[in-house]
Amino acid sequence: MVGITPLPWKFYQALQKKHVLSVHSIRKPFLKLIAQHQYQTTIIWSESLSLAFTKKLLFQLRENFPSLNILILSNPLTSLQRAELLSAGAKDCLSNSVCTQELLARLSNISHTKNSKQNSAIFSYKDFRFEFEKKQATYKKTIVHLNKKEALLLSTLLSRPNYVFSFQTLYNIVWNATRQPSSNSLEVYMCSLRNKIDKQFGLSLFVTFKGQGYGIVV
Predict the structure, then answer these.
(1) What is the CATH number of the domain that holds 25?
(2) Is residue 32 part of a domain?
(3) Tell me, what's the pLDDT at 159?
(4) Rounded to 5 degrees, what are φ and ψ at 111?
(5) pLDDT band at residue 3, thresholds of 50, 70 and 90?
(6) Residues 156-180: what's their mean pLDDT?
(7) How far apart are CA 25 and CA 139, in angstroms?
C-alpha cells in the first residue's frame, strides 16, 4: 500500500483484519519495497488527488511491475478522471468516502485478478529455479548463494522475462537512487550474477542491451 497522505483509521482497521497490510508513505522508496516483498496489490490513497501526479505514479508502477493490482482511493472523481486513471493502469478507482465493506469487496475482486507468470512463486528455466518469496536460487539441487542486493536485482529481472529494464529503473529499485550514480555498482552486480549463474551452470539468461539496460531472455 502506498499512501500519499495518512490512511484513515477505519480503513486501516478493516484492511488489517482481512489482509497482510503494509503501509508506506509515498516519500519512502516504495519501488524498492514492492520489489523486495513481491506485493500483489497496492492502494494509492490521497485526500486530495493531483491527477497529473497520480498518473505519473501509475506509470512508474506499471513500468516496473506490470502485473501489480492498483486501486485508487481518493477524493470524489469525475467520470472523465476515473477513465484517465483506469487507462493509465489502475484496476479500480473509489471515492475516499466509500464504506469499509465496499472497499474490502472491491479489493477482494481485484486481488483475484492474476497474471500467471507474475504470481507464480517460482521462475523455472531448464534446471535453474528461483523462489521469489524466499529469494533463493538453485540449479538442480545446488543453492546459488546471493547477497541481498544480488537477490533483489535477480528477482527484479526475473519478474519480467524478455523485457529490458533500463539502468535507471534498476538503480531506482535496488539502490533507491533517484539519479544514476557515477559508480559502476550495477555493472559489478550484474557481472557477479553472470559468474554465479550463467558461467557456473552454462546458461545464457542475462542479456545486456547496449545503451538501454539489462534483461532476462528465455
Answers:
(1) 3.40.50.2300
(2) yes
(3) 85
(4) -70, -20
(5) low
(6) 82
(7) 38
Q: For the purposes of burial, counting CB atoms within 10 Å of the CB of 192, is it exposed (0-12), middle (13-18) or buried (19 or more)?
A: middle
Q: Choose among 51, 116, 121, 117: nearest CA to 90.
A: 51
Read off the DSSP letter of residue 195.
I
CA distances from 177 to 24, 171, 172, 182, 183 (A): 18, 5, 5, 11, 12
pTM above 0.85, yes or no: no
Domain that holds residue 164: 146-216
Same domain as 98, residue 11: yes
Strand partners, 142: 139
CA distance 162 to 178: 25
What SS3 class is residue 78? coil
Which pLDDT belongs to residue 27? 62
Number of structural domains (the chain) is 2
Q: Position of cell 545503451?
A: 211
120 part of a folded domain: no
The three grid cell numbers given for residue 146, joined into one nine-digit string: 546471493
For the segment 15-68, what is each residue's pLDDT rounded down to a tens digit? 877 776 777 776 656 677 676 666 778 888 877 778 888 888 888 888 777 778
Query: Nearest-CA neighbor of 66 among 208, 163, 185, 201?
Result: 163
Domain presence at residue 121: no
